[in-house]
Amino acid sequence: MMTKTPGPVILLGPPGAGKGTVAKPLMATLNIPQISTGDLIRGNIARGTELGKQAKSVVEQGGLVSDGLVNDMVASRLAEGDTKRGYILDGFPRTLVQAQWLDRYFASSYGSLPVIVLSLAIPYNRLIQRTTGRRTCPNGHGYNIYSLPPKVADICDIDGLPLNRRADDVESVVEERLKKYDQETSPLVDYYRQTGRFAEINADQPVEQVTAACLAAIERLRA
Ligand code: AP5
Predict the structure, then answer these.
(1) Residue 208 falls within a domain, yes or no?
(2) How many angstroms separate the CA atoms of 218 and 221, rounded?
(3) CATH number, domain containing residue 104
(4) Which helix (H) or strand (E) holds 134?
(5) Structural domain count, the chain
(6) Do the strands 86-90 and 116-121 form a parallel or antiparallel pair, or are they unpaired?
(7) Which atom of ligand 1 is nearest to the CA of 135?
(8) pLDDT at 12
(9) 19 is catalytic
(10) Is residue 187 part of a domain?
(11) Catalytic residue at 177?
(12) Which of 58, 130, 143, 186 to mutate to test the pocket of ligand 1 (most atoms within 8 A of CB)?
């Protein structure tokens, strides 16, 4: 159990790398919130907000929502009271513009610890199965028809509720998302590598081992 203040942590990684999956045990162990821009955007879409209306077709086609909208959304989430000890950014930043915005945000946040960046690395050929196989219960319990199937097809083991598949988890859209990752997000690996508070994590191993590797890296980089 880590006793130090964890501070801000970025989880970088392509679609299906396991950012959301590993964020859950990290949150529980470090006692800090996960801020997933994908979840925030999907929440806006489900509620039919103005942001959700603007984002819906972009997300469903595997594109990226505009930097301005996403940065504003993150700014209001970071202003909530539960972020003082730190937080896990999952899926943000995703472009150089977002990373530069975040740098300015940290520079203006008095007393903020420097950010730690964990890059989840996994061969590309694993990502299609991870994304197209993903199923989620309305209460957030996650499954994968290939690696973690429910006992009864399409039904949550815990709640008995029907499982959902994300609209952007069909193969053609996943390919678009991977292309966007290559073009817009993968340059951030080098951007953050130079900061000295960066670690590459092997994400092609069981979740418990990915989690342990992340915790060890945070402990080491926060020393
Ligand atoms: P978002 O929701 O962030 O999607 P993503 O980055 O494409 O990531 P995923 O949620 O697909 O994957 P993940 O890495 O979290 O994997 P997971 O843990 O679920 O974004 C969706 C969309 O919103 C974007 O395409 C864009 O349009 C928009 N958006 C979001 N942020 C934005 C931003 N900053 N700027 C602009 N637009 C933005 O795992 C996947 C599956 O693999 C699961 O089934 C899981 O069970 C399984 N799995 C995970 N880890 C393991 C393991 N170690 N072993 C075996 N199986 C595993």
Answers:
(1) yes
(2) 5
(3) 3.40.50.300
(4) strand 134-136
(5) 1
(6) unpaired
(7) 44
(8) 98
(9) yes
(10) yes
(11) yes
(12) 130
